[in-house]
Design a protein that fits this description.
This protein is about 40% helix and about 15% strand. It has one domain: Rossmann fold (3-Layer(aba) Sandwich), CATH 3.40.50.720. The radius of gyration is 20 Å and the shape is globular. Helix 7 links the parallel strand 11 and strand 12. The chain contains 12 helices and 13 strands. It has a 7-stranded parallel β-sheet with strand order 5-4-3-6-11-12-13, sandwiched between helices. A two-stranded antiparallel sheet has the order 1-2. Strands 7-8 form a two-stranded antiparallel sheet. The relative contact order is 0.17.
C-alpha cells in the first residue's frame, strides 16, 4: 500500500516501513563511526523501539558489537494496516544487526508484567547466559501493577497551582497560551507508579534472583531536567516527582545488587514522549536554532554515543552533586539558556519561523514515523506486513 502520514494531535497514527528503516540506518552509521573498545557485550534494553531506548540499542550493537535483547510493546501490522513506528524500527534494527553478524532478539509485550519479565529471563538464560548492561527506557501512559492488578495512569500536570505559559499548537503551527490545572494527590501518586522507578527495581530484582545479571553489571535509566521555564510542568510537576523516584530506585538497585545503577539526564529532543508535553515543543524549536548556531546540536543517537563512549564506558562519569550523569550539559550551558530566554518573549506565530527552527522540529517529528527521509520513494507501493527477523531464527 502507499503510506502517508496521518497526524492526530501529538502522534502520527501511520508509519512508513522503508522510512523507518532509513532512519535506523542513519543512526547505525553514526554509531559505527564511533566504534569503541571496552563497552558492554550483552545488553538488555527495556523500551528499545523508539527514542533514547532505540538509540541505546543501536550504540550497544554498532559501536560496541554487543548482543542485544530488546523489550517493547508495539503494534504489528493488522488487516493490511501499517504497524507502529516502533515495530518497523525494531524490524529494521534486527535485520541490520543480523547482517552484521550480531545477536539481536526482541520480545513484544507489556514490560510491566511478570510474564514478560519471565520470558525475557528465559531468553537470556538460553541465549546469553547473563547481561552486563540493562537500559531502562520505558515511556508509557499507563501501568498495571502485576501484584494487585490495579491500573494506574500518568498525567502531565503541575503541582500546587495552575501553570500558564506559551506553547505550540503543532496542528496549526501557531504559538498559543496554555493553562494547565494542577494535579490531585492521587494523580501525582499514579504518575509516580507509572513513570517512577518501581518497575525498574522489579526488573533488576528479577534478573539478579534468576542469576542472569553479570557481576559488576551496569544499569541506566533516563531523565530530563530542562530550563526553569519548563519546570512547573516537568521537573516540579507530576513527571518530575516520578523522575525523583527513578533516582531513588537507582540508589536502591546499586545497594541491593552487584550492579552500578545510574540516572542519565539527557537533552531535549523530539520524541513521541516529549511531543506530548505542553511548552516543551516550543522550547525545543528555539533550542534547536540556538544549539545549531553554536555547533552543539545533538539528536538521540549522538547523545547515546556520548553517554556510552565518554561516560558509562569512558574515563569519567562526571556525576553531578546528586550522582546523575549529565549529558544535557551542552543544552544547559549558560550561554545557550540565556539565548533561549532572550528569544522566548519575542516568539509568536508570526515570528516562529524566524526566531526558532520549527521546520526542523516538524522534520524530526515526521521522521519518528518514517516520513520525510531522503532516498525513500513515498509514492511507492510498500509491503506493510513485516515480521521481526528473530521470530524465524
Amino acid at each position: 500500500m502507499i503510506v502517508k502520514p496521518r497526524i492526530r494531535g501529538f502522534v502520527c497514527i501511520t508509519a512508513h516501513p522503508k522510512g523507518c528503516e532509513a532512519k535506523v540506518k542513519q543512526e547505525i552509521a553514526v554509531a559505527q563511526a564511533a566504534k569503541r573498545e571496552g563497552g558492554p557485550k550483552k545488553v538488555l534494553v527495556i523500551g528499545s523501539s523508539t527514542g533514547y531506548g532505540l538509540s541505546s540499542r543501536i550504540v550497544s550493537a554498532f559501536s560496541h558489537e554487543a548482543a542485544t535483547l530488546g523489550v517493547f510493546f508495539e503494534r504489528p501490522s493488522q488487516k493490511g494496516k501499517p504497524a507502529s513506528a516502533g515495530w518497523y524500527n525494531s524490524v529494521a534494527f534486527e535485520k541490520a544487526a543480523h547482517e552484521a553478524g550480531l545477536y539481536a532478539k526482541s520480545i513484544n509485550g507489556d514490560a510491566f508484567s511478570d510474564e514478560i519479565k519471565a520470558q525475557t529471563i528465559e531468553t537470556i538464560k538460553a541465549d546469553l547466559g547473563q547481561v552486563d548492561l540493562v537500559v531502562y527506557s520505558l515511556a508509557s501512559p499507563r501501568r498495571t501493577d502485576p501484584k494487585t492488578g490495579e491500573t494506574y495512569r500518568s498525567v502531565l500536570k503541575p503541582i500546587g497551582e495552575s501553570y500558564t505559559n506559551r506553547s505550540l499548537d503543532t496542528d496549526k503551527s501557531e504559538v498559543c497560551e496554555v493553562t494547565i490545572d494542577p494535579a490531585s494527590e492521587e494523580e501525582t501518586a499514579h504518575t509516580v507508579k507509572v513513570m517512577g522507578g518501581e518497575d525498574w527495581e522489579l526488573w533488576m530484582d528479577a534478573l539478579d534472583q534468576a542469576g542472569v545479571l553479570a557481576a559488576g553489571a551496569k544499569s541506566v535509566a533516563y531523565s530530563y531536567i530542562g530550563p526553569e521555564l519548563t519546570w512547573p510542568v516537568y521537573t516540579n510537576g507530576t513527571i518530575g516527582q516520578a523522575k525523583k523516584d527513578v533516582e531513588r530506585a537507582a540508589a536502591a538497585i546499586t545497594e541491593k545488587h552487584d550492579c552500578a545503577a545510574y540516572v542519565a539526564v539527557n537533552k531535549a529532543v523530539v520524541t513521541q514522549a516529549s511531543s506530548a508535553i505542553p511548552v516543551v515543543p516550543l522550547y525545543i524549536s528555539i533550542l534547536f536554532k540556538v544549539m545549531k548556531a553554536r555547533g552543539t546540536h545533538e539528536d538521540c543517537i549522538e547523545q547515546m554515543v556520548r553517554l556510552f563512549n565518554e561516560r558509562l564506558y569512558g574515563d569519567d562519569l562526571r556525576l553531578d552533586s546528586v550522582g546523575r550523569i549529565r549529558v544535557d550539559d551542552w543544552e544547559m550551558e549558560p550561554e545557550i539558556q540565556q539565548a533561549v530566554a532572550a528569544i522566548w518573549p519575542e516568539i509568536s506565530s508570526e515570528t516562529l519561523s524566524e526566531k526558532s527552527d520549527y521546520a526542523a522540529y516538524q522534520e524530526n517529528f515526521l521522521s519518528l514515523f518514517g516520513f520525510g527521509l531522503p532516498g525513500v520513494d513515498y509514492a511507492e507501493d510498500v509491503e506493510v506486513e513485516l515480521d521481526l527477523p528473530s521470530a524465524h531464527s
